[in-house]
Amino acid sequence: MGSTSGGGGAVAIERRLEAILMVADEPQSLVHLATAVAHPLVDVREAILRLVADFDGVHGSVRRGFELREVAGGWRIYVRAEHDPVVADFVLTQNPSRLSQAALETLAVIAYKQPISRGAVASIRAVNVDSVVRTLLGRGLITEAFTDSETGAINYATTDLLLTQLGINSLDELPLISPLLADGANGFEDLP
């Protein structure tokens, strides 16, 4: 009869690893995976190689729309390159994850004025930005750059993910803001 571990031996290790890798958003080292499934490193390494072969359709299995790749010192599941266009279309059009107007405005202030404290952002926007900053942090679009030693205020900056989302290589590629503002500075003048 079945057990709660999902079967015995190598198959159980593979299914457990597969489940972990499906939810992991960063590459997982063999050591971390071995600890997670409570099996020796050598067994986990062999199970990972069997999963790679299985996902690739070796030995008569179906070639999956995803693959298991070793990157950055760990293993992670990725969409196969030939399926990138359909997945990108789905993510962008069928399952949009849009930012609110308040979040976009706060993100713009941070992008143009970084590093900048939450208080300074709130001063520019003239509204409380606590929840919006938490949302932007949660989505990985901004990060805590440093804490001001005098005031204790956390200063925020944008991340590489924002650059990727905008399709630019650096913040230098952002359009000039002054032509978009009525007097060229309203709200973006130097803060005290």
From TrEMBL:
What are the coiled-coil residue ranges?
Answer: none
| Cell division found in the keyword field | yes
Q: Which Gene3D superfamilies match?
A: Winged helix-like DNA-binding domain superfamily/Winged helix DNA-binding domain
- Which Pfam families does UniProt cross-reference here? SMC_ScpB
Instruction: Provide this UniProt record's keywords sorted from A to Z.
Output: Cell cycle, Cell division, Chromosome partition, Cytoplasm
Q: Which GO terms describe its biological process?
A: cell division; chromosome separation
Classification via InterPro entries: ScpB_csome_segregation (IPR005234), WH-like_DNA-bd_sf (IPR036388), WH_DNA-bd_sf (IPR036390)
Q: Does the keyword Cell division apply?
A: yes
Q: What's the protein here called?
A: SMC-Scp complex subunit ScpB
**Native source organism of the sequence:** Cryobacterium adonitolivorans
Q: Name the lineage.
A: Bacteria, Bacillati, Actinomycetota, Actinomycetes, Micrococcales
